[in-house]
Every structure is written in structure tokens, then in C-alpha cells.
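Re: your question about Mitochondrial inner membrane protease ATP23

S., sorry for the slow reply, the queue was backed up all week. Below is exactly what I fed in.
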Amino acid sequence: MERGEAGSSPVAGEKAGEEEDDFGYRLFPDRKKPPQSFLVRSFFTFHNKCQLMLRMTLETNPYAQLLLEAMKQSGCTVFNDRHFSCENCDDCVSGGFDSATSQIVLCQNNIRQQSHMNRVVTHELIHAFDHCRAHVDWFKNVKHLACSEIRAANLSGDCTLMNEIARFKFGLKGHHQTCVRDRAIRSILAVRKVSKETAEKAVDEVFDACFNDLEPFGRIPHSRTDAKRAYRDFQNRDRYNANL
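Result:
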């Protein structure tokens, strides 16, 4: 299970590393429960609001639209009812990508604003895109997980200036890279029972290559305007390739 944007992350120490790893499923308890009927779910305000915000993101957000188009062209079409699930989660997470089912989990009890939904969906769609285009060993290779977490933090808008200011984090040159590194490490620690040193080493060893892997955006989208340009460029690139 790959974790999305969260408020705070548990830090696993050496003792935790000796225990059997549940791959972060403890943070998503509804994954282990039988699915509820539509009628039952319809009575939960959180669920309805989550579904409405998700639909808004998929229909209007350029980050999500680009990723959906890129996945479709890679042979991995995303369907709302099949590949997204609004569920209750641990308070420290906002979303996750369940690679075992190719499903994005959206934490309906923790996502309250549309802007937050936009970031979480984008973050998890980057994991889904990586899952689609590459043979990612999510469960056994921490470097693979680190790479996707770096890309998700770098390209989803998690580390935009406004988001960092909202977290009371300020920096000058290189702050974006610092934010990406820190958030990737925190995400690994949330879903893997490894030491902080192991997570840091994995991130540092793949950081340069994965930070500079900008597919499918072609640039780091620091704002919605950047994402719109990237989406337009992606569409134009596809039209050009179709005429070759």
C-alpha cells in the first residue's frame, strides 16, 4: 500500500523492523472489510462528499486529466467506479495506492477541501501511472517505492510554495528538492517497517534519477497554470506522433 499526502507519519524504529510488515494496510482498515452496498454508503455524508469532490477533480483538474490520458495511452484506462474507493482511514493519511488491486484509496474522513482532493488524486495517480508503465516491485524493493514517492511528491503539487508556506516551512534555493526528499522519506516510513536510515538511504540512492523523471508532465508543474501547459503540450505531442 503506498501512502498519499498526510499530516504526520509514524516513524518506524529497529523494533518495528523486526515485526512482520503489513505494508501499510493498518492505515486503511476498510480494505479488510466486506464492501458496503451503495444504499448503505449513500447515507454517509463523508462518502457522498468524497465522491463529488473526486468527480470534480477528474473532470476539471489538469494534473489529473493529463495523468488519466497518459495512462489510457499506456493501456491502463482508469474507471471511476473500479479504480477509486472512498474509505475511512487512519487519521495520519489522506490516500493510498493499493497495487494489489490497482485501486486508489481516498480517505473520506480526512479529505475535506477540493484543493486537498486534487493533490491526493494526483499523487496517487502518479503511483498508478508508475505501476502501469514499469515493473515496480512495491513490496520487496524499497528503492522502487522510494522512486515513485519522489516522483509523486515532485509532480503532484505537494511541494508548491503555497503548500509549504501553509505548513510553516520556508526555504530559499533547493527548498523544493528538500521538500520532495522529506516527504518521500515520510511516506516510506508510514507504509514500511524499516528504519529511518534505511528509508533515507533508499531515497538518496535514487533521488537524482527519479527527481528528473518528469513523465508524463515533461516539466515540474509548480502551479495549475503549469499543469495546463503540460497537458496541452502532452496532447500536442500525441497529435504529432500520430502523424509520423
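DSSP finds eleven helices and four strands in the chain. The first strand starts at residue 2 and ends at 3.

Happy to talk it through on Thursday.
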